[in-house]
């Protein structure tokens, strides 16, 4: 896979050159506006034919068959929404922002730092297509098969073999590269890039509201209407009127809560561990010449062999993998069979929190006990760490930096968000999350249906290492490790 794109946008601060370049990007309007009814945004408005054409491509329709939240639906049963839903939502927020900008902050001359509406088309297309490269159970799949959804997104947009690319080419021969450059964060206009990817962008604003809605929680709710009222362009990107500071503050807190309560939920991660080990075992069995694989997994074969192409990738979705999981329920390999049963029938691994470094020896001893109880530690234990940085300010000396959120004061000067909000200041630069050790639930609970525990003594020894779902310090477990 080609993970790089040619960015043909002009470099530097030559705003006049950039504006001249975009003059040929025009698109046909639909005879009548079309709408999608949406539970989060009410209506999603489609005004350009190219947007409708992109939605109708096989590559975009595939997103209907990929869940937005992966294994989270095994914890929050309503979270069955798709990447398709989300992508339309990001488009709609970007469209509303463009409308606000052209009405309130239209550019009068090149380089004035205001909004040039000739950027609308590339913005809307990038917003719509930003997740086009996601695969089934995307993040887990990526780890096992070494794929990169962002690189694949760029490849789908720029490859002449896709319908997406052919439609974008109708706007201009270099237009696909321009859209891809926005997603790659190399596009010349930082306003456009930050609308799609920053610490407060159309992508994050939609997935917080959408994921909260479908998960049945209120953590992710914030005042989108107010944020869209106070957002504004400036030379180096986007900013917010200081009068809307509390709405932006609420957004940061909502994002923090969603990560802690939804995205990092230990049960969802327990299902993710089962899925990861299931795919790993399938790959290992397939590559083992001595093992018998009764059911062919045709669409996965190129990924087992690491010979896959973009065409192979686009054949995959959640339904394809789930079908294979059902086939593997009948496989002779006991580990593959068992892991498939656990995933299909929702039997997540149990977990306890641990402290990296301090508890390394304890984890080794616990893993050994798991093996003594008859479980292969390579497929029945795992360490899983999930961390997020809720907000950070610009740190020029770091290898990777973030675009900080700027507030515009009454005199026109800028103030970084954490300088104005004590709540955001408390979250700034502080990584949040935890590290967990996963293992089969029956190790501590036995066979609950049969009411027996075949490894009661080993189970008691195992359970002595933790209390309140957290591994105890070594000195409290009795003995030297």
From TrEMBL:
A Gene Ontology BP annotation from the UniProt entry: dGTP catabolic process
PANTHER family in the record: DEOXYNUCLEOSIDE TRIPHOSPHATE TRIPHOSPHOHYDROLASE (PTHR11373), DEOXYNUCLEOSIDE TRIPHOSPHATE TRIPHOSPHOHYDROLASE SAMHD1 (PTHR11373:SF4)
InterPro entries, per the entry: dGTPase-like, HD/PDEase_dom, HD_assoc_2, HD_domain
This protein's name: HD domain-containing protein
Cross-referenced Pfam families: HD, HD_assoc_2
GO molecular function (one): dGTPase activity
HD domain span: 83-208
